[in-house]
Design a protein that fits this description.
Elements: H1 14-23, E1 24-29, E2 35-39, H2 45-57, E3 67-72, E4 78-82
Parallel strand pairs: 2-3
Antiparallel strand pairs: 1-2, 3-4
Length: 83
């Protein structure tokens, strides 16, 4: 399992999870406690921020009160999502 995979998604979310993971290059927690996903440059940041939010909201392991961001590899544009 890759370190950026979202855990314990329902079978209904598996296809969406696979789509998301195809675009993720790296994930990490920032010093401010935000979950950061670095995506391939062709990924639509708005779309993938929405996918991340949907998948993370369905994950019972996570506290549902945090923010995250998605960005391309150059990290010049960020799109934030909140749970």
């Amino acid at each position: 399992m890759k370190n950026h995979e979202i855990l314990n998604v329902s079978p209904a979310h598996q296809q969406l999870n696979d789509k998301f993971n195809e675009q993720v290059i790296e994930s990490y927690w920032s010093e401010n406690g935000e979950l950061i996903y670095i995506l391939k440059d062709e990924a639509n940041l708005e779309q993938y921020a929405g996918i991340a939010k949907k998948l993370l909201t369905a994950s019972p392991e996570l506290d549902q009160n945090f923010t995250g961001k998605v960005a391309h590899t150059n990290q010049d544009i960020w799109v934030r999502f909140e749970l």
